[in-house]
Specification:
Layout lengths: L3 E7 L5 H9 L6 E8 L16 E5 L4 H10 L5 E4 L5 E2 L3 H12 L3 E9 L5 E3 L9 H8 L11 E3 L1 H6 L10 H9 L5 E12 L5 H4 L1 H26 L3
Parallel strand pairs: 1-2, 1-4, 2-3, 6-9
Antiparallel strand pairs: 4-8, 5-9, 6-7, 6-8
Helix pairs in contact: 4-8, 6-8
């Protein structure tokens, strides 16, 4: 029975207890929940009730990529998933996605997601952009990152193949990773919403949008030729 590692990076987030609880309450039980405290000074008390049920790691503040990488380094699962401390999984997220991956012999997959507010109210269903054809997926990734990191599940071997998250990127470490992964692995899409993505005033994409946009531009240029090559290969050009 495959083990799934759920890595939760945490930095001063008031929703951390809800994230841990939903990870522990997955219908698929062979999971390990790894919480990485990335130098937090607030809301630590919300982790305490779960300490006996999780693997808890602490480090100096270094950003999401560094927290994810520490979690990956300490993972013992066959598969990796990432849960942001302000987001939630639907209770059967791991079961449905793992089943989908095994059926397709997939190394990398992602799903759709719904949007919730600070009070957990769902205000948008199937909110993520998606593509059923590979060329459409690749062409969209030339311009933007539509793959929500918390919807992704990967075999641990992917990290052995292409490395871990780039810690020099503070806001687009996920986009960079997808652009590397697509050069080596098929990106399977499961057309279900299995994550609740929280939209709130404290979210990093709002507070640091200017820096995020700059990083996206850098990555577009860095991977432009590689993406064109993969697209042309898919088109048999």
């Amino acid at each position: 029975m495959s083990k799934v590692s759920i890595v939760i990076p945490f930095y001063n987030c008031p929703f951390i207890d809800q994230a841990i609880e939903c990870a522990l309450n997955q219908t698929y039980k062979n999971v390990e929940v790894i919480v990485v405290n990335d130098g937090s000074t607030e809301y630590l008390e919300k982790i305490m009730p779960f300490k006996s049920q999780i693997r808890y790691l602490e480090k100096e503040n270094g950003g999401t990529a560094s927290a994810l990488n520490l979690g990956i380094k300490n993972s013992t699962g066959d598969y990796f998933t990432w849960l942001s401390s302000d987001d939630l999984y639907y209770k059967d997220k791991v079961l449905k996605q793992l089943t989908f991956m095994i059926e397709n012999n997939a190394y990398f997959s992602y799903t759709n997601y719904s949007l919730i507010d600070a009070n957990n109210h769902v205000f948008a269903q199937m909110a993520g952009k998606y593509f059923f054809d590979k060329i459409g997926l690749l062409q969209n990734l030339q311009n933007e990152n539509h793959i929500n990191g918390c919807t992704v599940m990967m075999k641990m071997q992917v990290f052995s193949g292409i490395g871990v998250f780039n810690e020099n990127l503070k806001f687009t470490q996920d986009y960079d990773f997808w652009l590397r992964a697509l050069q080596n692995y098929e990106m399977y899409y499961l057309h279900e919403q299995l994550v609740k993505y929280r939209v709130h005033n404290g979210m990093g994409t709002r507070r640091f949008s200017e820096y995020l946009i700059k990083e996206v531009e850098i990555l577009r240029e860095r991977y432009a030729d590689k993406l064109i090559g993969v697209i042309n290969q898919e088109k048999n050009i």
